[in-house]
Every structure is written in C-alpha cells, then in structure tokens.
Amino acid sequence: MAAPKRGRSASAQSKPGRSLALILIAIVALTGGMFLSGNKTPRLGIDLAGGTSITLKAKADQGSAVNKANMDTAVDIMNRRVNGLGVSEAEVQTQGTDNIIVNIPKGTNSKEAQQQVGTTAKLYFRPVLASEPSGGAAQSPSPSATPSGSSSPQPSTSPSASSSSSEKASSSSTASPTASATSQGRPVTDALKAGSTPTPSPSASGSTKPSSTPSATPSASSSAGTAAAKLQAQYAALDCSKPAERAKVGGASKPSEPTVACGQIHKVWYKYVLGPAAVDGTEVKKAQAVFDTQGASGWQVQMTFSSSGAKKFADITGQLAKNQSPQNEFGIVLDGEVVSSPFVQGAITGGQAEISGSFTQQDAQSLANMLSYGALPLSFQEQSVTTVTAALGGEQLHAGLLAGAIGLALVVIYLVAYYRGLSVVAMASLLVSAILTYVIMSLLGPAIGFALNLPAVCGAIVAIGITADSFIVYFERIRDEIREGRSLRPAVERAWPRARRTILVSDFVSFLAAAVLFIVTVGKVQGFAFTLGLTTLLDVVVVFLFTKPLMTLLARRKFFANGHKWSGLDPKSLGAKPPLRRTRRPAGPATGSVDPKEA
Q1: Among the four 8, 362, 492, 518, which has the fewest Cβ within 10 Å?
Q2: pTM of the complete model
C-alpha cells in the first residue's frame, strides 16, 4: 500500500508547472480584460478624485411632514438610486432636521446621479382631456412626421403603450371639428365631463386646425364651473416653452383633481389638460430600460404593475379606447411633467406597459432607476452645489503611499537579510499578489462600482504584512524539517501540510474580521474592510498556486538543494541534525542458517 502512495505523491510533486501555468493564465486573462474594458486604473473615491457635494432642503409635501421617519426613508431611497447608477463611495446623510448632504465622487455617472438624487419621482397615469403644441417654434410639428403604430392589444404578447412625436402630430392634426370631447365614463370631475368644443387655432403656416380647449357647461354647478373656467384660462395662457411657467404647473394639484401640465416630445413642447390620476406610480412593481430591436422606438422603459395596478391600468386603457383623439391618450406624468402620452386602441391587459419616446440610453436608465426604487416621501429644494477637490486627499494618499513604500522596503530588507535566497520567492509572490490586486480593483470599478479611497489604500498596505506572514510560516516549516536532518525536497513536501493549516486558519480569521467590519459599518470604512477581505482571499490563491509550486521547482536546483550559504537553507547555519535514516542496521542471520566462520 505504501508504494502506490509514494507514486501519487511523486506524481503531484513532479507537476508544479500546472499550478504556475494556471495562475499565469488567470493573470493574463484578467489583465487583458482590464485593457479591453478601457479601465486601466481603479476608480477613485471622492477623497482621491474629488466630486460634488449637494445640500438638499426638505419641504413638506401633500400628506407628508418633515420628520425623522420620512428623512430616513429619503436617505435610503437616495442611496439606492446612486448605487443603482454604479456610483460607489457616495455619501448620503442627514444634517439637522431638514437637510440632506449628498457627496458624489467624480465618475462616469456622477452627473446623472446629481440630476436625479433629489428628484421626487412621483409618477401618475392620467387621462388626456386636451393637448396641443405650445410656444414659439413648437407650434408646428416636424413636416416629415407620419402616423405610427399604436398600442393595440395582442393576443399572444403583453401589449404595450408607445408614444412619439409623429403620433402626437397625427393626433393633433386629425381631430374632427365636430368630435365630442365627452369623457365617456372616464373618472373626471363634473366640471369637465361635458367636454369641450374644439376651436380653430392658427398654425405656423397660417391655416387653422381644431384645438380641443375645455369649456365649462351651463349645467355644471357654480363651484365646478368656476374651477373649469379657471382651468381653461390657465390652459389657454400656458406657454410650455418657458421654464418659469412649466415650474408652476403639473405638480401643484392633487392626484384626485384635474390639472394642466407640459411635456416635451422630440424637442417639441406640448401643453395638456389631464384628468384625475387613474393609476399611481406606486403600483409599478418593476421597471427596466430596454432597447427596441424590432421596431423604431429606440430606448424604452418597460414596467410591470402589481396585481391591483394591472387591473386599474386595464380599466383606464379600456375606457380611453372608446374616445377620439386626443382623448384616447393617457399622460404618463413624472413629477408634474408629461414624459409620454401614448394613445390606445383597446384595453391593455397583462400588467405590463412600456414608456417610449425620445429617450436616450441614459434617459431610459435614469427613469427606470427612479421608478424601481420608488418616490421620495418629501420634496427637496437644492440649496447648494459645491465642487470637492482632491487636493487634501491627494496629499494624504501621497503620505500613505510613502508609508507603504517604506514598510515594503523594510519587509524586503528583512527577507533578504534573514532568508537570503528564499527572499526571491517571497518578493515574487508579493509581486504576483500586487498585480492581481490592482487588476481586480480596476475591473471591480465598472462591475460593482468599487472605488478606491484612503481607507481602502490602508487596507491594501495592511495586506502586505498578511501576505508576507504566510510566506514566513511556510519558510519556517521548511527550515524545521531541514533541522530534523531531512534534505530539501522531502522537507518542502512535509512542511507544506503543517504550513497550509496555519495559513488557512490565519487567513480565515483575517477574512472573518473583514467581513464583520464590512457588514456592521457604513461609508468609507467599508472600503477598508472590502480591500482587506479581497487581499486575504488573494493571499490564499497566491500561496497555493504560486509560492508552493515555485518552492517545489527551486528544491530541484543545486543552489537550494545543496544548501548554499546564500540560499537561506544551509543545514549548518540552521543547526541541522545528522541525516536521518542514512544507514540501515544489518539484518540478523536467518533462522537455521550457519555462520560461515563457525563452519
């Protein structure tokens, strides 16, 4: 039984090149991925790269008060929005009772995060009562616009709503002068139920075209008539091309009341009269940005409603399908602005819908991100936006790197003085560990949003000692075996199981501490814990796949195998015992044999 075991051991010892080839392939693959992705350096945190600091002041919203619970909810939603964009190391924290400070590091998506971090993201689906182009050059849609497909239900797929400027041009230019604007069952107030009488309005070319302007009916009550007349006057005077006027409309009314709003489709501003909200944005269970590869819609936001939201959405689209344009449309209103106004031809069932229009990829992803993480419970006003420079962090980084270089130099001097030739193995292992750490940090930036900050740099510096400690444990085990009188090759193999257990236990304790620190802390301290845990895992990989196989190869070289005085494995300097089992005790004579001398 012993012979086969020695055979397997010898086979394992004779192929250390496999492990070295494996780690070499891993390094080449990771480095190639780093260069192909274009991320040749790790992403830096706000303390090293600079960024933007935003101060937001909370305002009481309809039905929501500025209190600790709402402020904490807002901080949590803002954090998830920023992380959803891939921006890491962002800090969102309260200051006082009504302020939130947001620090966003400079990066690929930092501008998008800055734009939406304080956006309330209140979404409503409202029926359209009237609409027309608004303001200056926006009065005439593009002459090349042609009607496009609508969102008719399909038996085998989930129907979706679509919107484009061509649809809007078609709907506004084909309305019949005698078309009734009666709501036909839509949940609108009595003041608007009687509809409107289209009146001609001059177009950019001087011709006239019908325009659905709401007017109060004589049968309406006095208060309802006053509200309708006020809404009509506000709609008639609204110029959506002016930012000041857009800011006054849309979000001022309650969801249960009709309102006027503005929306931009392909750079053309439209004004709308919208009925009460039929579906609330809180009914959206999931939203994601997708690219329409089968049509010409481009980037879209696909939404999945909850069960109650799906029923409401099917009901409102079924009611709207009975009406004529533009009252067969529903406005998708986000924070008071119409982002899309698709028309329908039938009830949209299945609990799914799409928002499409003039979206870029960033626009679609930003909208899907806000819808996925929900609306803020409060409204926020931007108080200040300041640019944070990396000057202070750069100085601290320089000091930290200098301290790390000094520490590394002292480790190298110690290794050379004490371990001599073995220091080559240690320094090569440190170099491999450093390469893997750098490449993986560079790849983790775009992958999970990892950013290197000052605490993370400290974690990498601490990891130098952890990695060097693993080599020292293995080297000392080998020396112990040589002191027992064994030659180098068996000493390397016998020392490995004992050193392996010690290394694994030590690294497990370090990784456990890093994991606990990462879980219980927030902010920049997590960068330290993450880096420490990462380098601890890499230490195990390097020791198993590089240090041990390299020692097996060097044990076959005369410089180390013969115990040269500069190899660090000289038996004399280590105080080795005489070689074990060099001679065998002669076997006694067999039973019944005759001694030749006696014969």
Answers
A1: 8
A2: 0.54
